[in-house]
Automatic annotation (TrEMBL):
Its main location: membrane. It comes from Serilophus lunatus (silver-breasted broadbill). The keyword Transmembrane helix applies. GO terms for molecular function: monocarboxylic acid transmembrane transporter activity. Keywords: Membrane, Transmembrane, Transmembrane helix. The chain crosses the membrane at residues 21-45, 61-81, 88-106, 112-139, 146-165, 177-196, 262-283, 295-315, 327-347, 353-375, 387-406, 418-441. It is found in: Membrane. This is MOT6 protein. GO terms for cellular component: basolateral plasma membrane.
């Protein structure tokens, strides 16, 4: 059989079966290697402090940069996927992740870790994870929702296993050798990327006619095409830049859609406090006399419970009873997450911290399951990708600055309790802001409907659900999708 015939069979390969399940397995591993990796950094917090004689604030910049880049690199990842395809982007991410951690093992200062493990590994994880999710969308159409739910279990598995492996390797061979081994482990993202061979209409093969924003058209715009005059070329470049910003960062949606505006502001504010327990829980436990291996177990407990609770939360929130009310479920989960922090303030005994981990993992499951579903509810699906771009960039800023600022407060006061006070403040205030704001928007919409005053632009005020599931078996996957997960 000729090579061309084999290629033709691959191109015509049906979705939702066969090789698609290997891609799903690769996606599970990818999510465990990327999103599941960053929480284990808290295990090394105390050792890095002692090694570099760094403060809490200085040390916390390292995981903050990693998480912020992982979340905020979505638009850049989308451009790479559109130009080079999912397979290349996943493998590039694996190379960057491995290179970042190997380089980190030779760092001589904490600031060098910001570049290697923070920026390089964070960016690599972003590319591998988000391009992997996009590839999954091409391989699954009818079973896409199920495939994404199954793939997300990789996050919980990574959340469970990484801290245990980290503590074992740290005890046996120190943090430098551990980071070196981690670099080799993260290179397995390249293997996962190799499995994700192209199928169907991937970004590498845009349609001949071209659509707005297609690879051919974007390349023509970004390269200045071939107008004869420099003024026209400059105008074309400005137009291309504007179109790229409009495609990946939906400022127009933010200005016009009140529901998206409230939700984006609320989640951005929430992220100031959401990551604090993840970064400081292990150091807090060790500071209060908990043995190091038991302190590392706390993060694993959160991940283990997430394996079972997150799918159940997703199924529950998808019930028609909660149609139009998912934003309130999300706000309730954020509120529970904020209130749970007071358990750590009451006591730092290991048994009490286990109770905290159980409750916070339930709240986190709700947040993780609903975060992007609510965004789909408040934004039209044809603008979801660009709306998600602005959403992730803004939340990455607060994810970046939250832990270092709180670490500075701990350095000044020498009191770890301020970590949980600060986290509770941001989470509880964000929950109340989103819940009450959407309640007010809904009430205003009902009053306008009762008075029968026509709206010029209903999407500016109205919180409405956009059904997405019934047509998943007939709609092709979006050309570019970048998604983060919690």
């Amino acid at each position: 059989m000729s090579r061309g015939g084999a290629a033709g069979r691959d191109a015509a390969k049906p979705q939702d079966q066969g090789w698609a399940w290997m891609v799903l397995l690769a996606a599970v591993v990818l999510q465990g290697l990327t999103l599941g990796f960053s929480p284990c950094i808290g295990v090394f917090f105390t050792d890095l402090q002692h090694e570099f004689q760094a403060s809490n604030s200085e040390t916390s910049w390292f995981p903050s940069i990693m998480v912020a880049v992982l979340h905020g690199g979505g638009p850049l990842c989308s451009i790479l996927v559109k130009q080079f395809g999912c397979r290349f982007t996943v493998m590039l991410g694996g190379l960057l992740s491995g290179l970042g951690m190997v380089s980190s093992s030779f760092c001589k200062s904490i600031s060098q870790l910001y570049l290697t493990a923070g920026l390089i590994t964070g960016l690599g994880s972003c590319f591998s994870f988000q391009a992997g999710v996009t590839a999954l969308g091409y391989y699954f159409v009818r079973w896409r929702t199920l495939a994404n739910a199954m793939a997300s279990t990789g996050v919980s598995l990574g959340f469970t296993l990484w801290p245990l492996l980290s503590q074992y390797l740290l005890d046996e061979m120190g943090w430098r050798n551990t980071f070196l081994i981690f670099g080799g482990i993260l290179l397995n993202c390249c293997v996962c990327g190799a499995i994700m061979r192209p199928v169907g209409s991937l970004p590498q093969s845009p349609k001949a006619g071209g659509e707005p924003g297609s690879r051919a058209e974007e390349a023509q715009l970004l390269n200045g095409a071939s107008p004869p005059h420099s003024v026209v070329q400059q105008h074309t470049t400005r137009t291309a830049c504007f179109q790229v910003l409009q495609e990946y960062l939906a400022f127009d949606v933010f200005c016009q859609n009140k529901g998206y505006q409230v939700y984006t502001i609320g989640v951005t504010w929430m992220m100031m406090g959401f990551a604090l327990p993840h970064v400081y829980l292990v150091p807090y436990a060790i500071h209060n006399g908990v043995e190091e291996h038991r302190a590392a177990l706390l993060i694993s407990v959160i991940g283990f419970i997430n394996i079972f609770i997150r799918p159940l939360t997703g199924l529950l929130s998808g019930h028609r009873v909660f149609t139009g009310r998912r934003i309130y479920l999300f706000s309730l989960a954020v509120l529970l997450c904020g209130l749970s922090n007071f358990i750590c303030i009451i006591s730092a005994e290991f048994r009490v911290l286990i109770l905290y981990c159980v409750i916070v993992s339930i709240a986190m499951s709700g947040i993780g399951a609903l975060l992007f579903q609510v965004l789909m509810d408040v934004v039209e699906m044809d603008r979801f990708s660009s709306a998600l771009g602005l959403f992730t960039v803004l939340e990455s800023i607060t994810l970046l600055i939250g832990p270092p600022l709180t670490g500075l407060l701990v350095d000044i006061t020498n009191d770890f309790h301020y970590i949980f006070y600060t986290s509770s403040f941001f989470l509880i205030s964000a929950a109340l802001f989103m819940g009450l704001s959407f309640c007010a928007l809904e009430k205003k919409d009902k009053l306008r409907e009762a008075s029968k005053v026509p709206l010029d632009n209903p999407s500016r005020y109205q919180y409405s659900e956009t059904p997405t599931d019934p047509q998943t078996d007939i709609q092709p996957p979006p050309a570019v999708v970048y998604i983060t997960s919690i």
